[in-house]
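Lab meeting notes turned into a lecture example. A postdoc, R.K., suggested we walk through two folding results consecutively so the class can see how the record format repeats. The first protein's sequence and structure tokens come next.
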Amino acid sequence: MRLVLLGPPGAGKGTQAERLAQELALPHVASGDLFRDNLRNETELGLTAREYMDKGELVPDDVTIAMVRDRMQRPDCARGVILDGFPRTLTQAQGLDGMLTDMEHKLDGVIYLAVPDEELVRRLSGRWLCDQCQAPYHTVFSPPSREGVCDACGGTLYQRDDDKPDTVWARLNVFHRQTAPLIDYYRQADLLVEVNGVGAIEAVSDLVLEAARSFARRGGAVRMKPEIDATSFGSITIEGRTIHNDVVLGLDGTVGKRKKQLSKKVYGTSHTVSLEEAKHVYEKGAEVLIVGTGQYGLVKLSDEAADYLSKHGCHVTALPTPEAIRAWNNAEGKVIGLFHVTC
């Protein structure tokens, strides 16, 4: 699944993108992080960007697009990505479309965090820092015990220019000028869902996740089935049918001590399920849960294993990552994929 999170400064895009990325086990790609990484590592794109920045000029869209393309071509983005801070302009949105077409993918949806400007100014202009220890405060959310004085060291609190109300209003005006065409663009493409970004972080996260689910249901992308009952991994229920795991194949060390607690027999497997393991599956006549971890996507069936299972009437279904995470919710390591094989 490939999603974009849009929203004005202070809307909580970074927080919500990170929470959604964890829920879907997809990489969170923030444009600000990309710039910092390329500048720090002095990549060719980073050096090009620095030339413009040193002259006080905006980095051209084609440089930003190239940075995002480079990041999305890495293996961990093969299953999808959560984009945060990109695209910012209509030109970048069109560049993203072309990029995904070249990769034979498509954008599944855009989630817009809607927050009134007055609330954004309240959030952003309330930030203060200690001039001695740099401890952060907020006049509404985390005020100091004494106005203007740091609780930690007694230093004087000051406000950065970027956090002053006039500057915040100016930033918001720039955002609206740049982003209004972008919102219309995605709305006309029937890709936009607007989410109320005012409220507790958890409540907003629930709305964001439901928006992602709506895209999944609509586009046939990663199908999330939160109804899976994973309270006991001795069996799980998928679409009303109870599946008992006779064998669990998992990467060595991925679920630690829980392996012995959760399955009758456990076999370590490499990242790609081999023909020998597929034969074992068939010979057992088992319903098998193949669990995968790591940064490169789902555990894969080798061509030989897939052919063997197919020839012997075994049905293989790739279940989406959220089920894997829920089913192995106490696993050590990050579970990112789950296959169900019925023989």
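The second example is placed directly after the first for contrast:
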Amino acid sequence: MSNIEIKIQKLWKPKWVITKVDDLTGQTIEKLVICDNVILYQGLQAVWKLLANVGPAFSPIYNEANAEIIAGTSSASSGDQAQTGLLGTTFSKAVEATYPQTSGGNNENLVYRTIFITGEAEFAWNEIGLTNGVTVFNRLVQSLGSKIANQTWTVDLILEG
């Protein structure tokens, strides 16, 4: 583990929550909670530019107007922070209105939420990430299951402070 990874883990704890619902019955099929992923160098650079206002202006920011959750098919290793995005076939969708939101007793968490309805991203999900439509911030590689017709998947990315 590199020094930068250790520092990021201390400052930023990502948690992915994926809730899968059967549209025909309204029943929850499965709820996954995954506390892992890799912040890509380009995502880290975006944070530093926004935080310190250094270098060329970073745009677009990861706000309600630009943030998207992206799902993909690649199961290639996520250990390389130099990657610039998801590697397989992908489908991205904007975050829900009013997201991102803060949460926690001191508003120390940042939450992004996207809801993938039937007809969207119906393939084997092996990778997910947060993008602003230009720059992919992070990447999780894990078999998350196959999304099929008549399923709605709600994906929350919680950046815990």
